Structures are given as C-alpha cells and as structure tokens.
Amino acid sequence: MASGKGIKINGKLATIFVARVALIAALLTVGKMAFAAVPNVEVVTILIIVYGATLGLPYALTATLIFCTVEMAIWPPHTWVLLYYIYWPLLAVVSSIVLRRSNILKTTIFAVIIAVVGSFIFGVLSACIDTLFCVGNLTPEDLRAYWVAYYLRGVFFDVTHIVSNAIIVAVLFAPLVILVRNIAPDACSIVSGKFKKISTIAGEYKKESADPNNDEDDSKAFIISVDKDNILK
After folding, report:
1. What gap in Å lies between CA 90 and CA 117, rounded to an integer?
2. Cα gap 215→194, rounded to integer Å
3. Which domain holds residue 176?
4. pLDDT tens across 187-229, in order?
5. Sign (positive/negative) of CA torsion 71, 72, 73, 77?
6. How many domains does the chain have?
7. Are strands 222-225 and 204-207 parallel, antiparallel or unpaired?
8. Which residue from 2, 48, 55, 77 could staple onto 6, CB 3.0 to 4.6 Å apart?
9. DSSP 8-state class, residue 43
10. Domain with 155 in it: what CATH number?
C-alpha cells in the first residue's frame, strides 16, 4: 500500500508534468500562429526537436499530440489532419531517441540533419496524402504522374521549408537547449538519469541526498551546473 507521502509526491509530479505539457503544447500553437503569414517558415520543428532532446519522449510526444488536436479544433479538417498526426509525433519520437549525445556540436549537427530530412519527408508525405485523397480513382500510372506533377508544382515551398528549418535549427538549437535545461533541470534529470554524462552545455545533473522525512517536492533535489568553458569540447 502506498504511503501518504508517496501519494503526495506523485501527485505533485503529475501536476507539474501536466502543467509543463500544457505550456509547451501552447508554445507550439503560438509559434505556428506567429509565423502563419510566412509561407513554409515555421518554428514547430525546432521546438519539437528541442523538447525531444531535453525533456524526452513523454513530454515531447504528449505535447505534440495535443498540438495536433488543437490545430484540428482551430482549422477546418482536411488532408492535413492525417499528415499532422503522422509527421509531428514521428518527429518527436525520432528527436527523443537520436538526440541523446554528450557533445553539443555533434548533437546540433544531428538536429539539423533531422530537421532537413524531416522537412523533405513532410513535403513528400503531404503530396502523397493529398494525391490519394483527391484522385484515388486513377490508374497506378496516372496516379504516379499526377503525384510527380503535384510535388513539382510545390517544390519551391518545400525547398523554402527545408532551408529555413536548417538555418533555424542550426542557430537556435543550442541556445534553446540551454534555456530549457536551466528552466526545468529536474525534468531533464529524470529523462536523462540513465546517462552517466550529459552534454556540458546543459551541465551534469546530480541528485542531492534527500532527507527521507522531508515532505518537500522531489524536484528540489535536482541541481544543475554548467561549465561554459567546455561547451564545444
């Protein structure tokens, strides 16, 4: 049977998790709306990649699914709904798994690669879904020809999407990682606890010896130290 203290701590951690997920999901929606006037330039990609790299899969995937649902509530449903529910959660999963490296320079390179490849896949997947939904009654040969024509017609927007995401991730990934890991070091510690060495840009996470009779929130037991002189080592 769980103790009253255990229930209290778990309740606090659950509340913190829900509040943080709500906040980062809202940032995804606000970020998308902020760049809505600029065709195929967005910050959703960089935010999801950073969430995956710092907070891990539980936060990144949950917030991404909420973001997709909110978008469906804001905009009229169309083929983009299927695209969103496939692509953005996949980006969260890949980022959470791949971006777990101790060297920030290498991590940034991998983040840029994920952004570039992901943006390309986004365009290809969008063309596939639109083609299948709009002209699914064509023969395989005609369907292939239609898809090629459809994709080439929007290739300029796909190139813009790929290039802009490459630049945005290359410039903002490291600063945002520092920001998130300093704002929520306890969340980063929990998801990174099995790693002996965390990136020096984010500091090494340690857990202080806690008094077993202390009823305060466990998140206070986490501390962070940043060695800025060794960021690129």
Report:
1. 12
2. 25
3. 4-230
4. 775 554 433 333 333 333 343 334 444 444 443 333 334 444 4
5. positive
6. 1
7. antiparallel
8. 2
9. S
10. 1.10.1760
